[in-house]
Amino acid sequence: MRIKVVRFTFLFCLALLVLASCRKGNRGTDEVTYDLPQMKDSGELVVLTLYSSTSYFIYRGQEMGFQYELSEQFAKSLGLKLRIEVARNVPDLVRKLRNGEGDMIAYNLPITKELKDSVTYCGEEVVTHQVIVQRAGGKGKVLTDVTQLVGKEVYVKPGKYFDRLTNLNKELGGGIKIRKVEADSITVEDLITQVYQGKIDYTVCDNDLARLNTTYYPNLDIRLPISFDQRASWAVRKECPLLAEAANKWHKENLTSPAYNASMKRYFEISKSIIHSPILSLREGKISHFDKLFKKYAKEIDWDWRLLASLAYTESNFDTTAVSWAGARGLMQLMPVTARAMGLPPGKESNPEESIKAAVKYIDATNRALKVIPDKKERIKFILASYNAGLGHISDAMALARKYGKNELVWEHNVEKFILLKSNEEYFTDPVCKNGYFRGIETYNFVRDILSRYEVYKQKIKK
Length: 463
Known about the structure:
- Residues 47-271 form the Solute-binding protein family 3/N-terminal domain.
- Pfam families: SBP_bac_3, SLT.
- It comes from Bacteroides graminisolvens DSM 19988 = JCM 15093.
- The chain has 19 helices and twelve strands.
- The chain is α/β, with parallel strands linked by helices.
- The strands form four sheets. It has a five-stranded mixed beta sheet with strand order 4-1-5-12-6. A three-stranded antiparallel beta sheet has the order 10-7-11, sandwiched between helices. It has a two-stranded antiparallel ribbon with strand order 2-3.
- The longest helix is centred in the first third of the chain and has 24 residues, at 2-25.
- It is globular.
- The N and C termini lie far apart (92 Å).
């Protein structure tokens, strides 16, 4: 009898362990209901999303993105810790959700009849559509009607943008000069940049991506839609009605909240470009009011003080009160987490000496992390790139360079090429990349701008 009791107890405990394992690893399986109460028991909300400039990315070592911030706000309202899991594409998002690899999709998931059978849509319902991206105030008049596309060259990537433009061309009876851009090295955002630069006149993208890019390039006009409206929202499994109800309630109550509005402005309204001013005084040999501090602290990292000044100029235009769209502060534009880690006291972000001191400490740490690059002058380019992008993305670009036969220890025409390609899905989903999507054009220009300005400083300002 005793043996039977022990055996029963063992089997019972084993069953509990298996059940607990199912609950932890297989959210929403047939064996276990895994809805909001179970998530609160676990203390964690697992959100599925995609890498992109409008949903989720890592910037200077910090998680960012509009969908990420909304997910974080929602999880906080539930008293849960947020964990992000990134899928490869929309079908993979749905597959991961149905397989229990996450609790919720936080992404503008298209609302379709087919998907309604697989998921429950919830949260804010947004309307997306495709638009023509063109320059405002260019040589020609801004197009205001799709019929005006006849005779025009429009550059598009293969896929939904090309398909929509092809269908529109048929509807108009032909005449649109569609230029399909199939090069893997060119992304949709690259085409938008080319419109801004005047290299091409027109391209096509979704309206949310277009809105975000107007914060970088204010001369863009994105008002001409070329597709029907597509509804989209977040989604959960069919077996999670309580989570769906909570998401609906939260979105309804928070559409006008300060946190929601701050996120909306950060990604879709606040300008991400800095207007720069000239050298303070050529006659007196001054670059800025902070030259003495640059000279003092540049010695600690064995830099020319004019290079440090060029970095500060690019970051903040020598404005000690500057706050970037991403939350970087002060003269040297350090992110809050980095500032704390480098010993910058809370409340002292606008103090120029404290900002420079912390930035130099960060540069020194980055220099040590990049000792694998033997040439000091070459290493400086990598340090500047890391200052802008975060060391993780630079490590990814170096790994890609190595994989594709380029020199991972040389920046120009080698690693810089792959920081640009990190906005391309084929590259940021490569197994050698650990940090996902990144808008590399900013870092590419950042390094070149600082070094070219440094050369000007050397010519005009005595050491």
